[in-house]
Amino acid sequence: MLTDATRLRDFPSLNGISYLNTAAESIPPLAVHEALEAYWQDKQRGMRGREGHFAAVEACREISARMLGLTPGEVSFCSCSSEAYNLLASALNLGTGDEVVVTDLDFPAGATPWLRSATPPLTRLWKSTGGALEVAGLLPLLNERTKLVQVSLISFYNGHRIDWRPLRDAVSRLAPNALVSVDITQAFGRVELNCPDADILISSTHKWTLGIHGGCVIGIPARNAERLTTHAGGWYHLSNAFDGDRFERAVTKTGALSFSVGMPSFAALYALNAALRYVGGVGVPVISAHADPLVRELHDGIAALGIQPMCPLHHDRPTGIVAFMDKRSAEIHAALEKAEVHVMHHAGRIRIAVHGYNTREDIRRALDGIGSLS
């Protein structure tokens, strides 16, 4: 992943291109392809293949827990972050009189379930200033009615990383009844997580973790298991799913395990197990040590071209994303595509993402493409 030799060996599809769009879609290593082949072989065995299927789920649970700093019993899976957040809304069962804080840098999956409730809580918006979420803007939004503060550790929108300790301390002091939910989709597998006392962690599986679609990781520390148990129907998350009283009562497993309401998405978990073991084998600190200087070079190079990145670069809070708005965004994107530099372009915004498989040559090609329009 970090050298020319391993990059070409493990990511042959990167040959000849500069792929800088991992914040949207990753390029999985060949180990993930092999895992999907193993899934296919097990699936070909019919019912007998389930032994391999469920073994893969438990192996994925173990490596996910290890990388999150949790125990396997505190980690579970569902199909996507949108499902996870709707299940979180089910667990909290909020209503009028309750309050939720969301941010304007959050992905819609985490910010909108509270607006769709049959009895919606009051949703308060923590607004960014200068592309960053300052804790001073959060303080007036917190009170004893606040039941949830939803944030992204790293914003999908502009790459801003939450300053965790001031946030956690403010919520503990001013909103003693609130839980803090953290979307780590744009962090997991790319940077070291620094939110050990988060109340629930949620991550998609097809971005920096190098997995595929159809999975989501949920981490809930045991201290919150009772409070964060869903009220959803299903079967896989029930302890009495096939007992004689199953039509009289539904007994739900608690905490993270209650978020796996139906048959696991086995293919996604075969893939995630292989992907996380690959990422863990390289080491997230090693990935960050390689990629963070590239992010700084990219950020400073864009600024030198007279373009203002959308959020400040904090050396103590690294991320993999640099984004900017420009009226020439369509032309910039076309120039980058012509040079086989793959980035994200949407509504005037260019977002560039740097992972462990990227190189200084990728950054140079991106800056040359942007600069070609100056």
Question: Your description of this structure?
Answer:
- The structure is a single chain.
- Helices cover 35% and strands 14% of the residues.
- With 374 residues, the chain is an alpha/beta fold.
- The chain has two domains: 4-24 and 284-371, Aspartate Aminotransferase, domain 1 (Alpha-Beta Complex), CATH 3.90.1150; 33-280, Aspartate Aminotransferase, domain 2, CATH 3.40.640.10.
- It contains eleven helices and twelve strands.
- The longest helix has 21 residues, at 284-304.
- Helix 2 packs antiparallel against helix 8 and helix 9 (284-304) packs parallel to helix 11.
- The model has no long low-confidence stretch (mean pLDDT 96).
- The strands form three sheets. It has a seven-stranded mixed sheet with strand order 2-8-7-6-5-3-4, with helices on both faces. The protein has a three-stranded antiparallel sheet with strand order 9-12-11, with helices on one face.
